[in-house]
Amino acid sequence: MRFILLVLLGLNSFIFYAKADTANEIPADKPVPEGAVSLFDGKTLNGWDGNPVFWSVEDGCVTGITTKENPCEYSQFLIWQNGEVADFELEADFRLFNCNSGIQYRAVRNPAHPWALNGYQADIAGAPHMGIVYGENFRGILCQRGKQTTIGKDGKPVVTGSFGDSNEILAHINVNGWNTYRIVAKGNVLTQYINGIKVSELIDEDDIARFNGLIGFQLHPGPAMKVQFKNIFLKKIN
Q: What is the pTM of this model?
């Protein structure tokens, strides 16, 4: 009963969620929510900076592809060029075909590699890690699915709350199809939702907590992979 209530409470956001029966179909274009801006015109990568060897527009979606012949040797990102963002709500439809990806936020560029970012990441992956908060070159796993985690001054994550069983939450996510991420970053509280369900929440009280930064989409090294994004909307919170 508690889990059902949490699901219903998660439906009050400004987004339209991917439906389970159409999870493998490319989502239709959605209207821009009130107070938000669209970060993708549906046709080009205008406003984004990424390695053109890997990133393109395919089927009306931002698409990142690596192959065995053309691998990604390190985590690199398609980076939104319109500056750093502080408090915000970000929504994006996504589909991962294989391997590992994520939505990077409040990030900084990693000077060691072109198109590399360090910072918080809303993870897009297989069953174990889908929906977690990950720190890309930034302290590793920060919050598991179904948990609220607080990082104190010692830099160590401690579970401070729970809002659903990890496997039950996963059952509402199509790991192999389309879903909708919503990320809400306000102050030092970072909350992530998939398909309207809260999947993770991080309270970062560490001295190195980030309060603004860049947004990007990840390509992961390793096996050949493909990831797509569509209906990408950003609402800044004053």
A: 0.90
